[in-house]
Prior knowledge:
Blueprint: E1 5-9, H1 14-20, E2 30-34, H2 44-54, E3 58-61, H3 75-96, E4 99-105, H4 128-143, E5 148-152, E6 155-156, H5 163-173, E7 176-180, E8 184-185, E9 188-189, H6 190-203, E10 209-213, E11 219-220, H7 221-232, E12 237-241, H8 261-267, H9 274-287
Parallel strand pairs: 1-2, 1-3, 3-4, 4-5, 5-10, 6-9, 7-12
Antiparallel strand pairs: 8-11
Helix pairs in contact: 1-6, 2-3, 3-4, 5-7, 7-9
Amino acid sequence: MSNPVILITGANGQLGSELRALQAKYPAYQLIGTDRNVLPIQDAAAVESWFAQHQPAFCINAAAYTAVDKAETNEADAYDINATATGILAAACAAHGTKFIHVSTDYVFNGSSADPYTEDQPTDPINVYGASKLKGEELAREQNPDSIIIRTAWVYSEFGNNFVKTMLRLMKERESLNVVSDQVGAPTYAADLASAIMQIIDGGQWKAGIYHYSNQGRISWYDFAVAIRDLSGLNCAVNPIPSAQYPTPARRPSFSLLDTHKIRTTFGLSIPEWKESLQVCLHQLNQG
């Protein structure tokens, strides 16, 4: 018998790349990564054909339309990938007996909380990206009640484009930077999230539902930038500014800290502290 297939959509993104990097650590599985050229996930016929051919045991949907500001004007594209495609994948998983893990976002909340968000708190997205991701969650649960949905936040990695890599580049180019200090949350190293997802799959304890995952701690984007600078030994001055001084097309939640108690206790996961993981990522980037 061949090894169980794990389909990874969005395989060239941050999380997809980190998942594929775990193949050597999990030789009992066959990790197959796809992108929009190999498998257009918003095309139900293409998805059905792929599932019929490969019969995946698991599907990790790491594909997403993540251009938060562009989503404000490209609403149809955002909903196509973040909502419609998620429903199609969830339905295909239900039809083929495939276990479905869907990755969602802290942006399903409005950011007005003072305490870390738990999974059962009311959702209320304040931008198109968040609304499209929330619709994706709803379609996943509707089409496949056995789905596991993992909301995450502030994702970065050595792969793709992200805050850490942008800060490193700008800090080498400029003498000073302004970074917003009134948006609070916790970053997520995509390698940690990938590892957690594989532990859930490999653990054999499937418990459907919504879960929250980010690294431990509570910081602002400004704090994050200062840590990136200090751990990298750079000399750029980092100035804290309010969000009002950095207007963007899409509103951002001012507070998006996720409570990770449920995923830790349900699956026995230990989640690293944010600065520890940032050090690991910076080390990897320096090796590259």
